[in-house]
Write a structure and sequence with these properties.
The chain is mainly alpha-helical. It has 18 helices and 4 strands. The strands form 2 sheets. It has a two-stranded antiparallel sheet with strand order 1-4. Strand 2 and strand 3 form a beta hairpin.
């Protein structure tokens, strides 16, 4: 028992040290992270805080323009270090003129300030979850520190979910900690810190991933019936009901944050899990947990789509029109899809050339594929589904302006964060003939069936 407690303390200390190191790095760039969409979410949050629409817009403009002056100084990895293009005063004047213009042209309602036409701003009106999440942070600490702390909470929450996912899948403590560190070091950590809805959507997605692993594990303390002990007691004791709650709750919240990404992730998980259940059935292995998880994700896919449709939120054709009409500033095309697919081809051609010139992601995906082939883990199909959802999200927004960014494709980066750490564990060597010893309780022993112990890696 003392050794078990010592192992748990070491795991907790390791997790906290990684979190502290990440926090220290982020303190070097408290501002300078704003993107053009940040002001939309921030004005929504300020409106929810009780400010008038005009005051919310002015506050969002002031933050965005001040942040732009620090963009080139950001030391955060993976970010685009673009030079400051305009002065803060000119930026404020330009955005205030834009607000006045669109107010005169009919954009007079909604929670977001009128930075563009009402049809474009409806996209952000349909994402109330992230502004609502920001409200207590901004109210308590002000805009600059509130947005920074909100991003830090989002990033650390996602990293802990990655750690727990790997531990729930039977990986060792060092694998879980490596997954946490890799999540924070890769663009997943940077996107999580940025004041946009993508980070919160990603964090909720990692909770869904954890829930799916618990569903596939089928019963507490096992990975598909392997008998491998996953580590932390809370994770070891969690079963299918906890997994189902995480999946359903994660998608419910994700629906409010970024429903399009929730829809794609649910559909990708349903598809991959159906394939997995079919493969397990063909191999004459237990397939019902995968089939149940697939059914849950399929039902949630339908629910997310129906909910967005009933609420009148922008759907697929609206997104296509947004792209081909440059945010609805030109007349709609009767059929936007031919032009959309032309831009789709142009984007992916340029993207592939970009990857060839800077093959960081291809190398990491190759390492991930190697890890998946060498380490059989329940996390593999879930990671593949998350990566597929990231590709689908980028395919739905083939904007060349996003060529050098990571946020739309960020779920693809979950693949290396979840797969590469598996290489730190030794491959399973099958079943050991040494029986487990009954657990000692106090001065005696707890009765129980003597079972065969599986050799696992360190601290599993």
């Amino acid at each position: 028992m003392p050794n078990i407690r010592r192992t748990q303390y070491l795991g907790l200390v390791g997790m906290l040290l990684i979190a502290v190191a990440f926090t220290g790095l982020q303190l070097t760039a408290v501002t300078g992270r704003a993107s053009p969409d940040t002001k939309n979410y921030l004005s929504y949050a300020l409106s929810l805080s009780g400010e008038s629409r005009g005051d919310a817009g002015r506050g969002a403009i002031a933050y965005s323009c001040a942040s732009g002056q620090h963009a080139s100084l950001s030391p955060v990895p993976w970010t685009n270090r673009k030079a400051v293009g305009e002065s803060e005063e000119r930026c404020v004047r330009r955005l205030n003129d834009s607000v006045a213009y669109w107010t005169r042209h009919g954009n007079t309602s909604g929670m977001t300030a009128p930075f563009a036409n009402q049809r474009f701003m409806a996209i952000f009106e349909a994402r109330p979850g992230y502004p609502l999440f920001l409200v207590p942070f901004v109210a308590a600490l002000g805009i600059t520190w509130g947005l920074w702390l909100a991003g830090l909470v989002i990033a650390l929450a996602g990293s802990v979910c990655v750690l727990l996912t790997l531990r729930a899948a039977g990986a060792s403590r060092r694998v879980g900690l490596a997954g946490q560190a890799l999540y924070l070091a890769l663009p997943t950590g940077t996107v999580a810190m940025n004041p946009l809805s993508d980070g919160l959507s990603l964090a909720l997605g990692t909770a869904v991933v954890l829930g799916c692993v618990l569903l596939l594990r089928d019963r507490p303390g096992t990975e598909g019936g392997s008998g491998a002990l996953p580590g932390p007691r809370a994770v070891a004791a969690a079963g299918p009901r906890t997994g189902a709650a995480l999946v359903a709750g994660g998608f419910a919240l994700m629906f409010l944050v970024r429903y399009s990404q929730a829809l794609l992730l649910a559909a990708a998980l349903a598809g991959v899990l159906v394939l997995r259940s079919g493969w397990l059935r063909r191999e004459q292995r237990r397939f019902t947990p995968a089939l149940r998880a697939a059914g849950l994700c399929a039902g949630l896919t339908v629910g997310i789509y129906a909910g967005a449709h009933l609420l009148g939120w922008p759907m697929g054709e609206d997104s296509a029109q947004d792209l081909v009409t440059h945010h609805y500033q030109r007349p709609d095309l009767p059929n936007p899809w031919p032009e959309f697919f032309v831009q789709e081809g142009a984007f992916w051609s340029a993207w592939l050339r970009r990857q060839a010139a800077s093959p960081i992601l291809p190398v990491l995906l190759a390492l991930s594929a190697w890890a998946m082939l060498r380490r059989r883990s329940v996390v593999v199909p879930i990671a593949l589904a998350a990566g597929g959802a990231g590709l689908l999200n980028q395919a739905g927004h083939p904007n060349l302006g996003q060529l050098y960014g990571f946020r739309l494709l960020v779920f693809l980066w979950l693949v290396p964060a979840l797969a590469i750490p598996l290489l730190l564990d030794r491959p399973a060597r099958g079943v050991s003939p040494v029986p487990t010893q009954p657990e000692e309780v106090g001065g005696g022993q707890r009765d129980g069936t003597v079972r065969v112990a599986q050799k696992v890696g360190e601290d599993t």
